[in-house]
Amino acid sequence: MLQTLLQCVGVVLRTTLEDAERWCGHRILHVDGSAFSMPDTPELQKEFGQPDGQRVSCGFPVAYMLTLFHVGTGFLL
Q: What are the pLDDT digits (tens) for 49-59?
């Protein structure tokens, strides 16, 4: 039920956002980058590694993410 509700809200918002908050015909988005550490498990070490400059077995795996937000509503795209 929650997944269906989220899909319906997403469709309405996406349709609404198509015409809203435009500059010279272009959508305006905020880009945000972030990083976060995770538990030190062999699987996560293999997948994500460690930050540069970190000695082996002396830190936590770090993942990076980049997100886009609609400027008018803050909707995560």
A: 877 777 776 77
Give per-residue burial for 4-31: e unless 16+ CB within 10 Å, then b.
eeeeeeeeeeeeebeeeeeeeeebeeee
Element (H, E) at 68: strand 62-70
C-alpha dihedral over 38, 44, 47, 49, to 10 degrees? 60
Shortest CA distance to 13 belongs to which of 70, 55, 60?
A: 70
Residue type, 48: F
Enter the tokens of residue 21.
């908050």
1 CB neighbour count, 10 Å cutoff:
5
Confidence band of 20 (pLDDT split at 50, 70, 90): low
Instruction: Give residue 1's Cα distance to chain centre.
Output: 24
Q: Identify residue 17 by its one-letter amino acid code.
A: L
